[in-house]
Amino acid sequence: MAREATELVRETENSLLFNHSSRVYYFSAAAGKRKGLSFDPELLYVSAMFHDMGLTSKHSTATDRFEVDGANAAREFLRQHKISQQDIETVWTSIALHTTPGIPQYMHPVVALLTNGVEMDVLGIAYSEFSDADRGAIVAAYPRTERFKEDIIQAFYDGIKHKPETTFGNVKADVLADKNPNFQPMNFCSVIRGSQWKG
């Protein structure tokens, strides 16, 4: 199943997203081992490989968030492999929530770990918890582009620009901005650019 997922994602995503998804898996799995969590590595792998499929034209719908599009693609893939409904729901949830901070860490290990891997690769969160050797080996196997930070921001933009209404999200930030003139929300792109990662 992992080989088929790899082939499908490699055929569907460009090298930027494929390598990012691969690094996400390895960072996720390493975090899980470091934390002593019990998880199914194959389910985590499918979650990582499909987490950005909704950014591709093949799997992007006109109305759903890109996270949901990716989760739906993973669900269809897993159904073809006769995976249990419970495991499918775990993978679906992990992908659907991977851009929603503050919730996944309290959920099933696959859900929590996928977010950990994404946050590490894109934002550099927990960067120092990975050894130089581990980071180096993962990046050597699945290289980051020279301008990864700008490239991944552009990939997100390209994947969602046709459906801006799906970006409505954290209503708490909207309420604070409306009621508190001093409120300065965090900006995802600024966090990426300020991460410890180079490039």
CATH architecture: Orthogonal Bundle
For the record, the count of structural domains works out to 1
CATH class annotation? Mainly Alpha
Shape: globular
Helix content: 55-70%
Low-confidence stretches: none
- By DSSP, the count of extended strands is 0
C-alpha termini separation: 33 Å
Following the backbone from N to C, one meets helices and strands in this order, namely HHHHHHHHHH
- Describe the main β-sheet briefly: none
Helix vs. strand class: mainly alpha
Radius of gyration computed on alpha carbons: 16 Å
CATH topology name: Hypothetical protein af1432
Summarize model confidence as the mean pLDDT. 94
Number of helices: 10
- How much β-strand is present in the residues? under 5%
Essential attributes:
199 residues; mainly alpha; Hypothetical protein af1432
What would you say this structure looks like, in words?
This protein has ten helices and no strands. With 199 residues, it is mainly α. It has a single domain (2-193), classed as Hypothetical protein af1432, CATH 1.10.3210. It is globular. The model has no long low-confidence stretch (mean pLDDT 94).
Q: Care to give the gist of this entry?
A:
The chain has 199 residues and is mainly α. It has 10 helices and no strands.
What is the topology?
Layout: H1 2-12, H2 15-35, H3 41-50, H4 66-80, H5 85-96, H6 109-123, H7 132-141, H8 148-160, H9 171-179, H10 188-193
Helix pairs in contact: 1-3, 2-3, 2-6, 3-5, 3-6, 4-5, 5-6
